[in-house]
């Protein structure tokens, strides 16, 4: 067998190993109906690509995304079914071993070295309050930071914890995403953005947001946001009617934002005829 062929076969064999392990992880996903690991893999990979990471890094991050919860093998159902905030101290101690367990499970295979490192860090938090090592900021691998964001989003959108309702799950305060066609999406995005720089790397939150927004746009779904008048951009649409103090309609709901009208709108905001922040759809 020539060398090129051997390299090709080894690469294929590695990907098949990932696929086998991926099936094992899916069998652990009773609480997500089997969609969680592929969502986290896809979105963290897409966000990594958007940030400009190279192909090898992207594959590593996607792989870590697919396998991030492999360390949950052996956890009792009674723990898997709960949100960490509902666990007893003892349950949390058992649960919080899963990132390091994941690394250990993969450690006999040398090509899973960096994937294992990323998995070991997927519950670290940007402000150093995560586990197991209380890493902070840039100490956390960007792949682990991206997986943490995709994981949070997917849990918020899909996980049905027994006894919990969507209203009590996320206390969003509406900084950025104030309304949307789907309240749950708005709540989860609010909660995500509110935790940027605390739990999550701001770079990871921004990259993930761009990936999700691009997908929503391609599906024809618009998001309503409150933005500063100086952040208006062509491609956005006004999401509300805005009147001058003397009753003149300045902009109408549904009207596109265009380049030429921006200086006028900035001026109107400066003199107080338009609020500093207004509702737009994008
Ligand atoms: Fe996890
Ligand atoms: Fe997860």
Molecular structure report:
The strands form two sheets. Strands 1-2-6-3 form a four-stranded antiparallel sheet, with helices on one face. It has a two-stranded antiparallel ribbon with strand order 4-5. It folds into two domains: 3-221, Hypothetical protein af1432; 224-282, Molybdopterin biosynthesis moea protein, domain 2, CATH 3.90.105. The chain has 282 residues and is α+β, with helices and mostly antiparallel strands. The model is unreliable at 161-176 (pLDDT under 50). Helix 8 (142-158) runs antiparallel to helix 10. Helices cover 50% and strands 7% of the residues. The longest helix is centred in the N-terminal third of the chain and has 25 residues, at 3-27. The chain is elongated, with a radius of gyration of 22 Å. 32% of the residues are buried. It starts with a helix and ends with a strand. It binds fe (ii) ion (FE2) (2 copies). One fe (ii) ion (FE2) binds at residues 36, 68-69, 151.
